[in-house]
């Protein structure tokens, strides 16, 4: 048998570019039935290079259509990460009275400045679209925010602050977030900083996001700051943490005592190695009300070396974020968007038992390359070990260690792993938030990825893999009871 190739690894329901290099999701907005996704893109190679904004659209955040490149680098620099908003009231004045203008803000990264050893080579700029995101015009007076003599000054994320009737923008400034406000999306005023001495500080802060969320089952609203860091994630590489607090129109104040100056806190959106730089969609209709999130399903530790050479990287499944309050702590849960259910195929509700009593799902029942498997372990009396495997002997292992109260993933023997030593290492994380005796598990599998949602999304672990052959069996260890099984193969045409 021959080893899987690039196209075998390609996900069927996660976005990946037809060819070449992709990193962060950018400028995500919703308008007139269409979800837009832009992304850091290098159309001339399979590693990071002069950045463009690629573009894709979808009606449901699951099936994506790649579009023409939206923004090209120019003499001011590469087009780094940023965001987009729909300017319904034409506060920017860019509108022509037909459709509302869509305004994107991105970071210009001037490679000459970087080469010359200057530190002021990143600034913020805007572009507008008068055809719902198809084509873009860069503002002639760019940049709108000059560099304040600061290295690592990037990734602006904008939102309309309804209560204070103003636009807000947050960007990453090395080891903290800067907050700005504006009336017209062109003139921006810095109003505050947050983050020095908070939480993970062993890398550079990148790709922030800032938005209000209703606390589930209450009338309370809190503001959430999402903050990616690279390196310095709790697993060493790229990862995304969050802060919950209050916003008074100028300052963000986190909940007291929630975060110390360390990375060993439970406020990470994902504890696997492959969910980075994720942000939320803007302009999601009020009637919908969801906070919709998507991340880049890779890690700077090895992203440029993964074995798919013609295309590199996919996005996570779109997720609904919810804010919950438990034991006086605010936590964010993530679950796959309900739009995925539309593709659910025939549901199987039983796992086979092998001779030695291992529960097992195999290829004859379910194609594990595009599947969802959920179940409940009603009472945890021992360690739980789950294994995805194939005929080549590759094994992707994950589960829960009872004594340590920890989830783990071990992909050291998952297939092709020799492209980066950091890829093969094992990760683990405490089940710090739920203390329940039972364990609910929901798995989303798509050719090169697994997204594990434990406890209704209280602990999430996302990882990619490159098995020599597709995984054909999913097994749980002997003596671990499994009930409420719902497994299905997705239908995509
Ligand atoms: C995060 C990041 C951003 C930057 C972009 C460049 O992965 O480093 O901070 O804008 O990638 O491609």
Structure, described:
The protein has 493 residues and is mostly beta strands. Helices cover 3% and strands 47% of the residues. It has helices at 6-9, 111-115, 421-424, and strands at 20-31, 34-42, 52-58, 65-71, 78-86, 102-109, 122-129, 137-138, 153-161, 166-173, 176-182, 189-194, 204-214, 221-230, 239-247, 252-254, 276-280, 291-296, 311-312, 319-326, 329-336, 344-348, 352-353, 359-362, 370-377, 384-389, 395-401, 406-413, 427-430, 439-446, 449-454, 459-464, 473-476, 483-490. A 7-stranded antiparallel sheet has the order 23-24-33-26-27-28-29, with no helix packed on it. A 6-stranded antiparallel sheet has the order 22-34-25-30-31-32, with no helix packed on it. A 5-stranded mixed sheet has the order 4-3-2-1-19, with no helix packed on it. The two termini are 26 Å apart. Beta-D-fructofuranose is lined by residues 23-24, 40, 51, 80-81, 107, 154-155, 206-207, 277.
Short description:
The chain is mostly beta strands. The protein is 3% helix and 47% strand. It starts with 5 loop residues before the first helix and ends with a strand.
């Amino acid at each position: 048998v021959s080893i899987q190739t690039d196209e075998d690894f390609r996900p069927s329901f996660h976005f990946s570019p037809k060819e070449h290099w992709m990193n962060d999701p950018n400028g995500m907005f919703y308008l007139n039935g269409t979800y837009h996704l832009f992304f850091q893109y290098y159309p001339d190679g399979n590693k990071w290079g002069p950045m463009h904004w690629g573009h894709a659209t979808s009606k449901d955040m699951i099936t994506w259509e790649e579009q023409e490149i939206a923004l090209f680098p120019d003499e001011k620099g590469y087009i780094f990460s940023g965001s987009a908003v729909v300017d319904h009231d034409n506060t920017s004045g860019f509108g022509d009275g037909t459709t509302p203008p869509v305004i994107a803000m991105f970071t210009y990264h001037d490679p000459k400045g970087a080469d010359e050893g200057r530190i002021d080579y990143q600034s913020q700029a805007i572009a507008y679209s008068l055809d719902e995101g198809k084509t873009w015009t860069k503002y002639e007076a760019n940049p709108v925010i000059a560099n304040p003599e600061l290295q690592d000054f990037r990734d602006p994320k904008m939102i309309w602050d309804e209560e204070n009737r103003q636009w807000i923008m947050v960007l990453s400034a090395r080891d903290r977030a800067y907050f700005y406000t504006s009336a017209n999306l062109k003139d921006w005023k810095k109003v505050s900083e947050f983050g020095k001495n908070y939480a993970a500080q062993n890398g550079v802060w990148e790709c922030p996001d800032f938005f209000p969320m209703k606390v589930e089952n209450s009338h309370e609203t809190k503001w959430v700051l999402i903050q990616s860091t690279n390196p310095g994630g709790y697993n060493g590489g790229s990862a995304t943490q969050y802060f919950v607090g209050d916003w008074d129109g100028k300052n963000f104040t986190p909940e007291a005592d929630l975060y110390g100056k360390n990375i060993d806190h439970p406020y990470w959106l994902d504890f696997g190695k492959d969910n980075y730089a994720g942000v939320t969609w803007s302009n999601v209709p009020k009637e919908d009300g969801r906070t919709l999130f998507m991340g880049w399903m890779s890690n700077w530790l090895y992203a440029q070396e993964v074995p798919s050479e013609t295309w590199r990287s996919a996005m996570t499944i779109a997720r609904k974020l919810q804010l919950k309050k438990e034991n006086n702590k605010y936590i964010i849960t993530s679950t796959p968007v309900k739009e995925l259910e539309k593709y659910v195929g025939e549901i199987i509700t039983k796992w086979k038992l092998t001779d030695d009593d291992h529960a097992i799902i195999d290829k004859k029942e379910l194609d594990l390359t595009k599947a969802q498997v959920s179940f409940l372990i009603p009472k945890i009396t021992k360690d739980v070990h789950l294994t995805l495997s194939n005929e080549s002997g590759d094994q992707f292992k994950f589960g829960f260690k009872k004594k340590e109260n920890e989830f783990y993933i071990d992909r050291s023997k998952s297939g092709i792993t020799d492209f980066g030593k950091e890829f093969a290492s094992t990760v683990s994380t405490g089940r710090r938030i739920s203390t329940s005796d039972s364990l609910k598990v929901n798995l989303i599998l798509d050719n090169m990825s697994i997204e594990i949602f434990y406890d209704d999304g209280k602990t999430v672990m996302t990882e990619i893999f490159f098995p020599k052959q597709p995984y054909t069996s999913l097994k749980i260890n002997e003596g671990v009871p499994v009930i409420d099984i719902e497994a299905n193969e997705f239908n995509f045409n």
